Input
Amino acid sequence: MSILLGKESGKLTVKVAEDASPGVAWVRFFDDQSASALVPLVLSSVDVFPETEPNDKRSEAISITIPAVVVGRLAKNGDSDAYGVSIKAGQTLVVSATANQLLKSPMDAVLQLADRRGNVLAQSDDARGLDPQIIFTADADQDVLIRIFAFPETPNSTIGFAGSAAFIYSLAVTTGPFVDHIASDGKTIVPFGYNLDPQNHWAAVLSEPEKGKALSPPVATFRDAMGWSWLSPVENVVNQVLPGKPFDGRLPAVLFGHFTKPDESHSYAFSASKGIKYRAEVNSKSGGFLVDSKLAVIDQKSGKSLASNDDVSRGIYDAGVDFTMTNDGLVEVVVTETLGGFGPRHFYQLSIYPSEPQCSLSVSEEHFVVKKDKPLELTVTVTRTSGFDEKVQVAATGLPKGITCEPVLSEPKGDTSKSVKLKLIAGESTPGHGSFRIVGAEIDADGNPSADTTAARFELRPAVSITEFWLTIPPISTEEPKP
Output
């Protein structure tokens, strides 16, 4: 892929190789003084239709040929966009919006499917995080309208549809195979979605990032199907179990599942050891799926509840529990959906593992600016779990030439136990850009940092975190200050 500056300000020419895999390329724009955040460039294997105005009214709907990806913008308050497609009896139409979750558009979009008279046939809101998705099976040949409008990501007192230059979206539209998400046991990657023929062996095509330049996990795509999914990295020692497959009780384990009917519960049993602390946690809502989970841990012999939880914390609707056995024996971890919901996007990932003291580091930004006359103070959040109470040295590594930063210590107690500040100083450094990492090392009994380190992370998107950060060193201004 190449990106060339256009003759007109603000316009670029992007060239993508014909054999490029669908997915996301991350792009950063920068000049001498500053740099942008990482911007996702979504690559498609089918035709892309740009929105043209006017297209607010039914009579102005843009006709598109599917399969296709439509890209548009709700540019002002009150804006809505309409597109027309033709579908045949028995076909299942998929309309999947990408806006808030990946593109960071500050919008809560709504999709409607209507007939040509304006009667609403289907409506969706918040199917993929805040992004909507419609699945509609036609009972007759018909022309239908796809309509998209939005409200602000953060609700306010505004009455009516919202819009701005930042309200960018894309719509994947097809009556063919569409991959919504995947699960993997480390050997096989299984797609889940719509119009996927169960008789077809859907073999994944895995696009691995170039070594040393990985910003995203590998991308899994499937020939002849729209849609793609990131493959979350999992250590080889983890026992990964596909939906519906038996669990043999080996830990640590990651188990995938779907709720396919009302009031369903899933139970996973394993042999627990006396005195060992275990952790069970669900990932669904935080990944943009729909399960509002509840966890319960049951001692099989006594029937006693050892722990239960339905929200890890306020505003986080995934469940997580810690529990310790007082004797050896079988326990069951039971997952339920608190609202009784079910369907293809009621998908979850359950992790069960012996809980060990751990320390993790994170930052709230992924690009920084340090000036020669003004050191940069960078806050690193320190998260201690399962009773971790060791001293940790936090240091910036791989800094551009001329940039210095003294390591700092995170103590087990006090203010530095939760966060520390690194001070980056630009000495006789050359103006420009570079990348660096932040790592933590446990301090041993002799007061020396361990060779084993943990890297600070920034959550770029759900299921995508990065450990390499961008640093800009602007040139020193030679202009005389104004009187």
